[in-house]
Amino acid sequence: MKITDHLSQAKDTLFSLEILPPLKGKSIQSIYDGIDPLMEFNPPFINVTYHREEYIYKERERGLLEKIAIRKRPGTVGICAAIMNKYHVDAVPHLICGGFSREETENALIDLQFLGIDNVLALRGDSIKTESTFRPHLDGHEYAVDLIHQVKGMNDGNYIMDDIQLEPTDFCIGTAGYPEKHFEAMNLTTDLLYLKAKVDAGAEYIVTQMFFDNKKYFDFVAACRAAGIMVPIIPGLKPIKSLTHISFLPKFFHIDYPEDLSKELLKCKDNKTVEQVGIEWGIAQSKELYAAKVPCIHYYTMSNSYSVHSIAKEIF
Ligand code: FAD
Q1: What digits encode the pLDDT tens for the residues 169-180?
Q2: Backbone angles phi and psi of 177, in degrees to 5
Q3: Rounded to whole angstroms, how far apart are CA atoms 147 and 157?
Q4: Who lines ligand 1 at CB under 6 A?
Q5: Which of 79, 188, 226, 312 is least surrounded, with the fewest CB atoms within 10 Å of its CB?
Q6: 217-269 tens-digit pLDDT
Q7: Which residues of 205-226 are buried (b: 16+ CB within 10 A; e: fewer)?
Q8: Given a cut of 80, is residue 162 above it in pLDDT?
Q9: How would DSSP label each residue in 53-112?
Q10: For the chain, what is the domain count?
Q11: Strands 14-19 and 296-300, how do they pair?
Q12: Is the pLDDT of residue 309 over 90?
C-alpha cells in the first residue's frame, strides 16, 4: 500500500520507523531484534536506508596503493523483502543517486516492483568520504529531482529501453526536507525552491531531517505551504543516546540543539544519563507533535529501539 494512502486513511498520527541495514557479516536477526519491540505501536511502514560504497586504499608491493570499493551495509532491498514477509507491513527502501547509473536505477526499480514494494524514498545521497563534494555517476543523476523524474517516468511507462512495450510501474515517491535547511543550500528560500521542484516532479510526501526544536518543524511546514508545497510533511525524530552523539549529530546532520537541551546535555557525565535526557526530550517533542496532529512521527532508530520504545509508549 502507498504511504500516501496510509496517511490519508489514518484517523490519528501514525508511528513509523527507519532502520539501517546491519554491518556486513551480521545476520538479519539483529534487524528483527530491533523491530520486534516496536511492532506493538503498529507501524504501517518501515524505512530502510541505503548505504553506498566507500573506498579504502590497501598497500601493495613496492609501496603501490590499491583502491578498493567496499560496502559496509549492503542488503537494503533484501531487508525490505524480509520485513514485508515477516511483519506484513510496507517497507520503504531508500534509493539514492550516488554510485548509480540511470540503467542501474531502472533495474533496481524493476526488482522492487517484482517484490511488491510500492514505495521509495528518493534521495541524492551524500558525497563519499574521499570526495569533498557530491559527484554523480557519469551516467547518473546529480540531484534527487532527477531521480524523481526517472521514477515518475517509469510510472508513466517511460523506460530507458524504449523500443518495446513496457508496463508502467506505480511507485509512491517520498523525498527529504530540511527544517534547518540542507547544509549545501544558499539559504532556506533556495532550498525550498528545489524542494518544490521535487514535489512538482512527482514526490508525494516529505520526510524531514531530524530536528530537536519543534518550532523549526512548524516554521518549516508554514514556509513550505507559503512556497506552494502542499504534500504531507512527516517529522523525523532521533533520540540522542550517547556522549558521542552530543557532538556527532550536529556535525554529521547539520542540526542545532535548542539551549534548554544543550544545558541538560552539558550536565551528563555518562551514556546512561544522555540516553535518559534523549528519551525525555523525545517524549516532550512527540507529545507536542502529536497534539498538533502531524500525519505521522517517524523515528530514526539507528539501532536504538530501547529509546524509541520508551518514547512511543508514552504517545501511541
Ligand atoms: P537534493 O534534493 O538533490 O538536494 C541536495 C542539495 O542540492 C540541496 O542543498 C538543494 O538545495 C540543492 N539542489 C537540489 N536541487 C538542485 C538543483 N536542481 N540545482 C541546484 N541545486 C539543487 N543518505 C543516504 O546516503 N542514504 C539514505 O538512506 C539516506 N536517507 C535519508 C533520509 C532522510 C529522511 C533524509 C532527510 C536524508 C537522508 N539521507 C540519506 C541523506 C541525504 O542523502 C543527504 O542529506 C544529501 O546530502 C541530500 O539529499 P537530498 O535528496 O535532500 O538531495
Answers
A1: 999 999 999 999
A2: -135, 155
A3: 15
A4: 49-50, 52, 94, 96, 123-126, 143-145, 176, 182, 184-185, 190-191, 194, 198, 207, 209, 236
A5: 226
A6: 999 999 999 999 999 999 999 999 999 999 999 999 999 999 999 999 999 99
A7: bbbbbbbbbbebbbebbebbee
A8: no
A9: -EEEEEE-GGG-EEEEEE-SS--HHHHHHHHHHHH-SEEEEEEESTT--HHHHHHHHHHH
A10: 1
A11: parallel
A12: yes
* CATH code of the domain covering residue 49: 3.20.20.220
Model confidence at 34: pLDDT above 80: yes
Q: Residue 263 domain-assigned?
A: no
Question: What's the gap in Å between 130 CA and the centre of ligand 1?
Answer: 18
Q: Copy the grid coordinates of residue 155.
A: 510510472
Q: How many residues does the chain have?
A: 316
The cell numbers describing 233, all together, are: 510533511
CA 32–ligand 1 middle distance (angstroms)? 28
Inform me whether the pLDDT recorded for 88 exceeds 90.
Answer: yes
Rounded to 5°, angle at Cα 47 from 294 and 147: 95
163 pLDDT more than 80: no
> In Å, how far are 21, 75, 95, 149, 150 from 173, measured between CA atoms?
21, 20, 10, 10, 11
